[in-house]
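Q: What would this chain look like folded?
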Amino acid sequence: MKFLQLASLFGAALAVPAADLDARQTCTTPKLRKDWAKATTAEKTAYLNAAVCVTKKPSRLGLVNATVQDDFAYTHAILYNQIHNFAAFLPWHRYYVMVYEKALRDCGYTGTAMYWNWVNDWAAPSKAAVWHNVTGFGGNGVETNPNDIRKRVIDGPFKNWRPQFWHSSVQPHALSRDWSTAQNGDPELRGAFYSPTAMVPVNAKTVFDEFRAALEDGPHAAVHGGVGAADDNRGLGDMGFNNASPSDPLFFLHHTQVDRLWWLWQQQNPSARTMEYNGNSPSLPDGSNGPPVSLNDKLPMGGLAAEGVVRDYMDVKSAKLCYKY
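A: My prediction, written as structure tokens:
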């Protein structure tokens, strides 16, 4: 399979026309992003129908035997080291969720992205509404193939979905999940790491990049691991230690929640935090730290959508975003 050749991901910031320097024009009718647990059955059904459609539409990137869902997984995998563990993690994923929302609309969906509020479900995450086999994403996986130790999802609307990628290589397989079970006094799916108590020190950070690191390395990573990595860290679920984790459509409810938590942190001091952006860009070829980041830095999208600019994805009430929680 011939992979796409991507251009340089984080180049020098380009000059921005004066008229575009502030993308914070307040939209007049922001759309509400809902908690999946509080959405109606009709809203959930509409979302799921569109999400299934995304797993069936042919690749827009020209990937062989692949779908639009595979496009998202592949793009995330090949950009992984540029968009994780650096400042761009939050604005890049904010833009990425918007691009997925557009893909849902291309499949007839008229609603907005929704989120899994795993902070509320931390004590018993396996009972969360997102796992319902009709109005959710199906449940945990089971071992069904002795030649593939990944655990196949056998219920819900995605039980027949076969992702093409594992990391950035072609490895067709059944959608897989491998939940972490309760152990050592900790609840299942690593819930202790995203409990209200665990969120206190995260939300107490007062510098953007410190908050980003605490959220990314703590609750965000724990949900990925709890849903897809099992207890031995083999990463046998798509959401686990797999750079192509967007193969599991649940990924987008998880990252909409991450986006919501960033928004809530911004709301603690909107005038200071809405456009606060600091930290480092990816390391240079010689291994040294990348340069300090800028609001004018580019957000690559690997052909899924036009290249973005960080400043356009800092304020959810900007004209480009126009949503609320």
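Residues 1-23 have pLDDT under 50 and may be disordered.
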